[in-house]
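Possible regression after last week's pipeline update?

I re-ran a chain I had predicted before the update to compare outputs. Posting the input and the new output here so someone can diff against the archived version. Not blocking, just want to make sure nothing changed silently.
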Amino acid sequence: MHRRIRSSAVVVALTAAATLLAACGPSAEQEGPAEAITFWTPQSTPERVAAQEAVAARFTEETGIEVDVVPLAAADQDQALVTGAASGEVPDVILAGASQITSWQAQGLLDTDVVQEAMDTLDPATFNENALGAVTVQTDGQSTVAAVPSDGWVHLIAYRTDLLEEAGVEVPTSVAELAEAATTVEDELGITGIALGTQSGTASGTEGIESIFQSAGCELVSDGEVTIDSSECTEAAGYFKELRDSSVAGDYDVESARAAYMAGDAAMLLFSTHILDELANLDEAVPPSCEQCADEPAFLAENSDFITVLDESHPAQFGATLAYAVPARANADEARQYIEFVMGEGYADTLAVATEGRLPLRTGTPENPTEFLDAWGGLGFGPKVESSVAEVYGDDLVTAMGEGMAAVSRWGQGTPDATLAGLVATQGTLAQQLDPLYRGTDPAEVTQQMAAEVTALQQDQ
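New output (post-update):
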């Protein structure tokens, strides 16, 4: 019998890996059905652990299979899984990011047969196609789905409907139009056109580049060929500078970009879906601070709308997805039952763990294709959990969020180029070239230097 980790649990440090492994499911040599399964989750705050334990308790009531919910950060998952695989002591289910999962599959650490069984039961046609592609591994011409996609978040562009109207700007439908709109707002109203991560050499700059460049049809690498110096990417670099220059307050990181929009100092904001509850004054830690917000706390929510797919001809939105993986030598049948439960009967409650950051990657069932997306729209969101997305923003936004999630894409994901793209992102390779761009260097020269740096990384792999 395994010990349940209570809601007071916090993220387990790597130094506790030995303790975690001791709580993992039995090795393959143990006979008979397991009395419990172990589930590793990166959703690690006490409130989120408690919510996941509640879902696990429902599963236990239905199946008799107990579940140990173990909060474990992504980096600790990576190292603890490798250690456990060597000893034969592994968890039974892991909720993890797509890049982690494809790496584990490449190392032979996952049981993909049981994942396929779960997918066959749930029906692959009910899942987000891009999310499936992100956890699909190509080996010797064969495609293997390494995990069951669960949920994620996506970049969107929040915009002030009143300010765009005042500036005489139409809602943009491409990166070119976005840059023009941002510039016009700054010229006409004297406030920042769009706030986004633009700081050179930083993670926020890296995120901003990938988000904007992808929406412009730019690819970092294609079939092993570095393409960041293509005409599409060079054009995107020029637009990125225009977006950056629409700021009246210098360069932003993620937090300061959000603060500018919350204060009413920016007409548009590039941010994740986590902004939804904050604009609606549902997160006391990040209250709206605009001039009108003192008397009307919901002012920003009432005067904001959202672009969830910027360019329909290039539906590639920056975001992140999570999926359920099953390690090799785990309790496969129990793991399969748990995954099918949290992706079916327990799915809405699973998404409610953090509604604004856990949008469904399985939108419905064959009988009701939008069942889970509709359920997500009706969940309470934000720390206060007082209102639903549909109540605050309307059903149309719920549908649009589904479209945004369907467009979630990351450079290289689901291809042999994923490792290189991951290195480029973690090392901030592209963001290191932003200063020359800002100083006026021709965008073609900037992207050529980006390509040279990426190629050097590729050759060092």
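Follow-up from reviewer: compared with the archived run. Confidence is low (pLDDT under 50) at residues 1-23, 25-31. Marking as no regression found.
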